[in-house]
Design brief:
The complex is a heterodimer of chains A (237) and B (389). Chain A has 237 residues and is an alpha/beta fold. Chain A has one domain: 3-Layer(aba) Sandwich (Rossmann fold). Helix content of chain A is 34%, strand content 29%. Chain A has helices at residues 47-54, 77-87, 103-113, 118-131, 147-159, 177-191, 229-236; strands spanning 3-16, 19-32, 35-40, 62-67, 70-71, 88-91, 165-169, 197-202, 213-218, 221-226. In chain A, a hairpin with a 2-residue loop joins strand 4 and strand 5. In chain A, helix 3 (103-113) crosses helix 4 and helix 3 packs parallel to helix 5. With 389 residues, chain B is of the alpha+beta class. Chain B has a 6-stranded mixed beta barrel. The longest helix of chain B has 37 residues, at 306-342. Classes of the chains: A alpha/beta (237), B alpha+beta (389).
Chain lengths: 237, 389
Amino acid sequence: MSVIVQARGVVKEFAAGDERLRVLHGIDLDVRAGELMLVVGPSGCGKTTLISILAGILSATEGAVRVGGRDLAGLSSGALAAFRRETVGFIFQQYNLLPSLTAAENAAVPLVARGERLSHAEKRARAMLERLGMGPHASKQPRQLSGGQMQRVAIARALVHDPAFIVCDEPTAALDAASGRTAMELLSDAARSPGRAVVVVTHDPRIYGFADRLAMMEDGRVTDVLDDPDSIRKLVH
Amino acid sequence: MGAIAWRMLTGDRAKYLGLVFGVAFAVMLMTQQASIFVGLMLRTAAQVIDVTDADLWVMDPRIIYVEETEPLPESALWRVRSVPGVDWATPFFKALSVARAPDGRLQQVFVLGVDDATLAGAPPRMLEGSVEDLRRPGAVVIDRVGALFIWPENGTEEKGAPRPSDIGRTLEMADRRATIVGTAEASAPFTTFPVVYTRYSEALRFAPPPRKPLSYILVRAKPGEDHAALAARIEAETGLKALTWRGFAWETIRYYLQRTGIPINFGITVVLGFVIGAAVVGQTFTIFVLENLRQFGALKAMGVANGTILRMVLLQGAAIGVLGFAIGIGMAAAFFEITSRTNVDLRGFFLVWQVAAGAAVAVALIILGSALLAIRRALVLDPAVVFRS
């Protein structure tokens, strides 16, 4: 199985007054094609910083990150933005849908950002929403949707431009159990597409069972990577 | 992303309308007040502007504005006529008089006496009768609104029914009977007194006669003659003051600008319009962008470049500016259109294109300033903000 995301010796430091605060201490991690990887760990352990670096939002202080065969080190902010536009799909805890746009328009945003006309992009977005069971709600605005429906719109937005890498930050944190399960099933299906990997940062043990592999983090380090379903299941209980 | 920016802007209808009408009212206030100010200043020079057949005005060197007449001796006219480059020079009389209507009503009027022979200085826009009728004994032409002031019971065309002719009516000025032989459209004078045109020789009878009767000399330059050079030549050869009509109008306007509180009062209102407009629009637009900061963060995370975010905010600002300006200018134009039709006291006030252009620049500054203030936060925003709950 090919590797979509490869991190080697990733270190991240932030300025804290006169001092440098190191939040990632040399992370090595591979995410393979067709895989849904969960990243878990206590708050402040560096999960969000790690996915921000893998997605090209933050740059690593040291180490190398390759996504889809592309080395992110040394890319300008413009090149990183272009990389994110082309290669990454995002799902956020707070959905971050544009409140004045319809579900279809929201889902179309990544296509519009790549230069497609809104009307054309909206057609493709409607087709994606249809696939995710959101067809009847495509013309509704976010305020008319439930949390689960908004997250499905966010998933459609993450998938619509067929990215190689999907990054999810606590996608079930604001959802009830049933909606969370539906969202994870959709993400699990998305991960099965050839040439795509999905990384989910979560605190929610209810969704551990969806993981193909589960990376455990603590104090800025990946302490273990579980790939055995039984081990993952034990973690749930 | 322009379509997305537009939808973001119009999605919050209350804020969108607040922004557009904030600009509109600022534009309305600035243009309406500035145009009234310009109209008022033009009124001060109305009698200079209305004399269209003379290139130069010659006067006593001490005169600094049109209302301040210092009579010239008759010999001045001959001296001016002898200056090379002068095609013709005619006397022009200007004085205040009191007109008495047959029913005893009194009204202060401006009496303008034009050259007996050529009628140079006569009103250019006759509404009724002919300028040539001024040659009849005791004949006067009165301005349309002046007649309305003296005989208001006859109504106005603005108020519906056509006003019956004023020709044949009589007035008494300086114990002399004057007969109206025509009405003319004259620019509204600053004091709003009616303007009565008559021949120079008649004017001396209709107004209290001064020791020296010649108020001004109107001069037409020979074809091809440079007006400024001719004015300088007249000044050098006669010791009098000579100005182009435009120069004299500006001297008069300048007098009112410098010696009265009018510009300060109107200036304060115009500046207040700008400041209030800038404050309302700036604050609302900044709040609008700040409230959308998380959305901009999400867009940046999804790969929308800073340049695109900048263009989106500028587009939103431009949309607000253009719509607000159009509505504000429309309201100001409607104000002048309606008031000029319904109230003769407000005639001569109109939306000046230079004022509209100035308001457009002011709106552009307000929008650009607000957008740049607001965009700064969006541009420095760390897209990783979207991963924080």
